[in-house]
């Protein structure tokens, strides 16, 4: 990740950079005043471009201009933010992702972002600076296994503001840095190809990240999974020579918050999904290293949670498994057990994510009695048929929890949309042969997946994010894994009210 810094004041003559990014709103009349302090050349070049009609500050527009002579800022990238009234952190993030993808950024090392009134004032300024950091980190992110890795390009972004808003800009940059490194961790784990990321390797990476962040990590290997009767995980993983793991990360808020019921996150960690004996056609198997994205998102989110320190515990449970083929593979038609004791009829070995999540969810609810459990999973190709890649399906058993996640997604620009879970859908996973079957009635695949998962959460408020359609960028192969879900989880957890203590006259909070 590039370095993100904050700088004041605007008038400091010693501050310069290869590129200056200037956000411009539709009330652009104040540009000469805003830029005046940055040098004559900057003002002239900008005003000329605007006078010629080459730049119009509607959302997402950008224009590169050059200042004449020797200047603190030889290049200026104008980026449009639209009307101040429509400006939101989610929108600002998008604009800065687009700015980060401008080819000029590959040609510069240092960038200064003008962080003044165009980004708002007070709390809004701070939130928009966070969104800008997040967008720039996202747009400049590159994954490569090349042996001579290039350093991040650009190497350094500094946010240049006025003295009186220095604290706002500083805190915005700081939070942006935490978020961006969590997202980048999730993406880097997810982008690793399956040959370099076995369940054991994913567990090691999670442990390393946990240690760095100050989380407790526990990893259950095969023997422990047998002791825990995780038959779903063991069965799906049985076809692979690389044995499954169950990764558990705990965030503990310290004395004031310990003893409170945690929020549990559960992530699908299929390091590779061949489909098993119901093998996938080659065309759709190619992207299956991304079937661990739910796990990576949850691990990334936990690393940010550790830094942002909410006043209640959070636990993450991640089954890491490979769905492969061998003489030990499970078969369509098999009836298997699960940690919960419920039996599962396997109608399709490619619907494996829900089977490993059944054990993960059961582990989370029975060990931790959480006040809510949220699972994140690349569960169904049907997610794409339902919503394209503009929003991901959200399904749950609790209106309050669903609403919380929906509005968090809206706030951070990770839109999610609720699909129904009516009794008719619930009946679709009934079977005469077992407690539940792992496929639905044919249509509504994402809902069928959720209807299956719901059987394993007891009466805990639960929500499921099916990120199969948004976890990697289909349009731009340079982007790879998107980290979709990290921001949403962090945003919702950080705005969650502290629970009341359990056991006081049996009172429990109603909303999760
Ligand atoms: N990992 C896949 C879902 C997936 C598909 C993720 C495309 C990303 C892109 C999942 O395990 C799967 O194979 N689901 C099946 C379920 C079906 C057999 C009921 C699917 O969606 O076809
Ligand atoms: Mn599958
Ligand atoms: Zn899968």
What topology does this entry show?
Elements: E1 3-7, E2 19-25, H1 31-36, H2 40-51, E3 62-66, E4 75-82, H3 89-100, E5 110-114, H4 122-140, E6 156-160, H5 166-191, H6 199-213, E7 216-220, H7 222-227, H8 231-237, E8 245-251, E9 263-267, E10 269-273, H9 282-285, H10 293-308, E11 314-323, E12 335-336, E13 344-345, H11 353-368, E14 372-377, H12 382-387, E15 392-396, H13 399-412, E16 416-418, H14 423-427, E17 436-437, H15 445-454, E18 462-466, H16 486-494
Bound molecules: ligand BES, manganese (II) ion (MN) and zinc ion (ZN).
Ligand BES binds at residues 273, 287, 291, 348, 350-353, 378, 380-382, 439, 445, 468.
Overview of the structural elements:
The protein is α/β, with parallel strands linked by helices and 512 residues long. It folds into two domains: 3-171, Leucine Aminopeptidase, subunit E, domain 1; 192-494, Zn peptidases (Aminopeptidase), CATH 3.40.630.10. The chain is built from 16 helices and 18 strands. It has helices at residues 31-36, 40-51, 89-100, 122-140, 166-191, 199-213, 222-227, 231-237, 282-285, 293-308, 353-368, 382-387, 399-412, 423-427, 445-454, 486-494; strands spanning 3-7, 19-25, 62-66, 75-82, 110-114, 156-160, 216-220, 245-251, 263-267, 269-273, 314-323, 335-336, 344-345, 372-377, 392-396, 416-418, 436-437, 462-466. Strands 7, 8, 9, 10, 11, 14, 15, 16 and 18 form a nine-stranded mixed beta sheet that branches. A hairpin with an 8-residue loop joins strand 3 (62-66) and strand 4. Helix 6 runs parallel beside helix 10 and helix 10 (293-308) packs parallel to helix 16. The longest helix has 26 residues, at 166-191. The chain is elongated and about 80 Å long. It starts with a strand and ends in an 18-residue tail after the last helix. The relative contact order is 0.11. The site of manganese (II) ion (MN) has 4 residues, from loops.
